Amino acid sequence: MKYIEVKDLTFYYDEEPVLQDINFHIDSGEFVILTGENGAAKSTLIRNVLGLLHPAKGTAEISKINLEDKKLRVGYIPQEISSFNAGFPSTVYELVASGRYQQNRWLRRLNKKDHDHIKKALETVNMWSFRNHKIGELSGGQKQRVCLARIFAADPDLFILDEPTTGMDEKSRHDFYELLQHEAHTHHKGILMITHDHEDVSEYIDRHIKLVRKEDSQWRCFSMDSCNEL
Ligand SMILES: Nc1ncnc2c1ncn2[C@@H]1O[C@H](COP(=O)(O)OP(=O)(O)OP(=O)(O)O)[C@@H](O)[C@H]1O
Q1: How far is the CA of 43 from the centre of ligand 1 (A)?
Q2: Nearest CA to ligand 1 atom 16
């Protein structure tokens, strides 16, 4: 079942094309990474998928299918989210709980099941013991893990993650990749993750999409290396 479908996408900032002729899809149950050198327009591409930016040509769609009578739900983590400033007042628990409210827009008050989800999400990223700490007091890697817990608490069908492991140590990264693989293979989630960590993640993923410089363009423009879509 296709969760994301990008067809013949070309995107311009101002006069210059930065992405050209992009085609790929992400199915349910797949853990796929998107790589490319710095400035290869990886974030630009996922912003097109999310509808934050709009292609000049072609289409970028998230599936309109309904799952179990609910619309497909998307969890997105933008780049550098862990740079919440030191004054950010909410506790770790509150921020993760806010993901739970997002999960069910009819929710009025958190119930026992919601609290169980929040606890599980925080345990998953080894941050349960920090639940009463203020976000601003945490290190960059800890903030990043709390943001991941917020997404897990929301329990989306499709994860779109922009360099989510920035600031995390090697063990935490491996645990996180294993968890994403489990979400994809056991719970049929779709996962598209931008990363520079392609060596460590390679044993967990199903496919690797790479953006490469277009040699025949006068601009600094990127396209897909079809050989790299395994
Ligand atoms: N709002 C904008 N207006 C004009 N140019 C932009 C804008 N945002 C990004 N760019 C340019 O588009 C190109 C792609 O940027 P983008 O952030 O998508 O790349 P990236 O592959 O995600 O980079 P990185 O790996 O460094 O995070 C870069 O040259 C960047 O300077």
Answers
A1: 7
A2: 41
